[in-house]
Design the sequence.
């Protein structure tokens, strides 16, 4: 398992020949997600796109980057997420509160 993980982490192109453990496959399945914010309700929250996951805490611990629009260039860690409202709480207050023009990526 360790050899497969190291191959992936260090870009070994021969890694395709290695059998990947289920744990690694699960990690690889967690892809980045992009969307346009519905709003930034205040300096420590952002309401994600209507297509965001509806499961509470789904994005906890992941990084959100504002890639364009209002607040572009800001990066925060999501500390809490409420799926029913699509509201993410971030670790540090936004310098510029995101708006409905803010495009984000969650990694």
Sequence:
């Amino acid at each position: 398992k360790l050899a497969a993980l190291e191959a992936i982490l260090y870009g070994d192109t021969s890694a395709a020949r290695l059998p990947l453990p289920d744990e690694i496959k699960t990690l690889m399945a967690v892809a980045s997600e992009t969307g346009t914010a519905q709003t930034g309700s205040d300096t420590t929250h952002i309401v994600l796109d209507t297509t965001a996951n509806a499961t509470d805490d789904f994005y906890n611990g992941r990084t959100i980057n504002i890639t364009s629009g209002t607040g572009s260039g800001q990066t925060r860690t999501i500390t809490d997420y409420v799926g029913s409202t699509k509201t993410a709480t971030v670790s540090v207050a936004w310098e510029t509160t995101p708006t409905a023009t803010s495009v984000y990526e969650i990694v």
